[in-house]
Amino acid sequence: MKPGAPVPDRCGTISQRLNYLATTIRRANGTPYPATHVARWIQAQGGTLSDVYITKILNGTRGKEPAPPCIRWLARFYSVPTSFFYDDHPDEIDGAWHSLQILLRDPAGTDLLRNWSLLPTDQRDLVSRLVTTMVPPHHRHAISTTAHTHSDGDGAGDS
Q1: Which letter, b or e, does each residue of 27-41 get, where b requires 16 or more Cβ atoms within 10 Å of its Cβ?
Q2: For a Cys-Cys bond, which of 41, 68, 90, 98 suits 84, CB 3.0-4.6 Å?
Q3: DSSP H or E stretch at residue 115
Q4: What is the pTM of this model?
Q5: Reported CATH class of domain 14-103
């Protein structure tokens, strides 16, 4: 977030609410989705928002509130109802759940999950451990609720 940008607040202005979503719903590595990523996804779905426009909303430098179609696209990207931007007191966002919804848009990830779910339990565990050991330890906390139970092979689990 840029210095001087609106403070994230789910009950604030549209800019503050978008900052709330951007700081609550994060990529697998724990960082916010960059405006370029958000804009690319929206454009791929048929929208016309640019990363510059999204950045201006995030930084509070957009002169007026975004138009309803813009709000609908942002809500769609973050998997929240459009009403999140307009209700006086929208519900808190479960960042992990919403982040998972975004990850599930990737066809390769969805295919991997489907195939994993068809495996017997012992093979699921083996595949989970294999994938977890391939992820750098400093990222495991951000992407896995089970990463701390897996070891790097040194006899000590990651905590």
Answers
A1: eeeeebbebeebbeb
A2: 90
A3: helix 107-118
A4: 0.77
A5: mainly alpha
